[in-house]
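Forwarding these from the shared drive since the link keeps breaking.
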Amino acid sequence: MNNELQDGPEYVFAQAVIDRLAGKKELANYVIPDPFDASDQVNNLALAVAQYDAAIAVMPQAPQPPPWKGVDMPDPGVVVATAAILVMTTGQVGTVPTIRRLSALTAAVLRRLRKWSPHNDELAGTAPWVAEITELSTEEVPDLKNVDGRVIFISIRETLNP
């Protein structure tokens, strides 16, 4: 691949989310430092979950066209970049049930991303939003047995600059 090409908006956004989450002391140990690629990082994820009883990985998703409304004109240079934040915990630790730990970790991630923009500005429409939160199934991944998780899909509208 030609190294002169710029990273796509989904990859840049995923890295910004990682940097934001890792900047919080209570979350830093859990955050995988690079955008997650399931094809080559499942072992790293399994090790992180085993070592810290939890892990947070951020996976770039394919960019999508934004929902155009009213007088908006479709623009191929405007996309919705989405990152899937994988929040995972191991089974019960001590007296704290898994679901309570997973709930607390999910809430900490959401609080850290609240009222934040990777663009360092206060302009309306530049902040990311939570598109969906769903349960994470790890049943088919042998290295992630006894791991429960959630996926937070966070999106932002991005304009591609030449």
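-- next protein --
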Amino acid sequence: MSNLMMNYLSAGQTTMSNIFLTRYRQLGLDDQEFAMWIQIYVQDQNGYVMIDFRKIADDLQMDIKNVYQIVNQLVQKNMVTIYSDKGENGQLTDRFSLNPAYEKLQQCMEQVEENQENSKIEGQIKRLFGLLEQEFGRPLSGIEFQRVHQWLDEDHYSPALIELALKEAVLNQVYNFNYIDRILLAWERKNIRTKEQVANEQKNRQRKKLQSQVDQTMNTTAPLPKVTLHNWLDEEDNDK
């Protein structure tokens, strides 16, 4: 094996999450600052207690004054912390930590996730208003517009739940906001908040209605033969 390959293997490897590579600008770093942070990260992975500024200067072929300057920028941007720690002998030793960078990245990712969720909800709200105007066949009035925002902001109904209540009203051919409101209140009393819970409620209601019809038939004066009832609802569900 050549000396070049031996040097390559003995230099070791550095593992870093791709999140840092794709999000460093969102952390407020430019390319030079991120390159410096990687050098510090490598030293942290290799067990350095304190940043070896001279080594970084040599590796990056950079004036050491520039190294100090960029590291100071990283400290100011809360990407690295330099602190003094008292050892067992009582002497103070300078150390560094990258924990602030990890915490900052976590906050960044949480913000990204929150923004994505907000964007998703905004899309659902836009769709909801479109469906309401489509089903009612006209633009919503100012009062109706406020009513929908009351459901969303004060009652905390999800756009998806309001859409299901609208669908229920349309199936019953009742194009009325008060009717939709009564549906939502009825679901709230039963702690129904999801599409799956609405579907289960509708199934239970259909079963009760079918059972009521069967009971009425069984209570007629003419005697009827006793037969086993077939649950067509379950069969329909299975076909789906």
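The first strand starts at residue 81 and ends at 86. The beta strands are 81-86, 92-97.

- D.
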